[in-house]
Fold this protein.
Amino acid sequence: MADKPLAGRHALVTGGGRGIGAAIARQLLSLGADVTITGRDAGRLAGAVTTLSALGRVQAVSMDVSAAAAIEAGFAQAAGSFGPVAILVNNAGIAQAAPFARTDLAMWDDIMRTDLTGAFLCAKAAVPMMLAAGWGRVVNVASTAGLTGLAYCTAYCAAKHGLIGLTRALAKELATKPVTVNAVCPGYTETDIVETTLDNIVAKTGRTREDALADLVAPNPQKRLIQPAEVAEAVGWLCLPGSSAITGQSIAVAGGEIM
Ligand code: NDP
């Protein structure tokens, strides 16, 4: 079916209950995939399934990507009902900003475990299924913070740079197999993460929300926040059968912030 190029493929989107992940789930469903969304908040996941089920076959699996045992159990549950995972979108992530002097080991570990080790472990669970089935797509949701340094974001930048390193190395290792591995790198995107960032800037600096927002979008030549659906479009395109020559790439979805 030309309008459902991912029909029969099982896609698992971590952090698919809200924000960019929910938009990606929507996009993959519209391309015909069966979609598992995962996250920690079972109530939110259930709500998302109710909304998304109008578009296709979707299920929720509770899975904390910072816990290895939960990932193993989550993939087994997801594959048990929808079959082997053919598309993995490592989207779950947390962002915390702090000056380097106040970036302690707990914050560092928290961000690394969720944004980097979680993606590694999910890929460990999914890639063998892709190789066995003879087709697969891994898309990691990194950030422009994975391509350049941002002040007050050492842990987040290090985790996202690490995620891009993982993307490139795994893509090269799998290059002769029918499995591609890519990253998308959003600029500031209109989700809860940005809402929290704006709240923090206002609380810590006393500046207005409009000023804080203008600062956030300043590096984006389009002077605006990216929309989750725009990130999802790029992810959907990377998952298409015709995108098989694209691997190891880190594609900025950022209005020209990175060139
Ligand atoms: P949100 O805060 O809106 O959503 C984050 C998602 O990640 C939620 O679904 C959450 O689910 C999930 N999540 C967080 N921690 C865990 C965990 N330990 N285990 C499982 N799921 C978890 O963020 P966005 O949609 O904005 O972000 C999605 C991705 O995009 C992140 O990787 C982020 O770094 C990246 N990104 C975002 C940008 C932005 O400006 N918004 C810019 C660049 C990159 P739950 O709460 O149910 O666990």
Summary: The chain has a mean pLDDT of 97. Residues 190-225 form one domain.
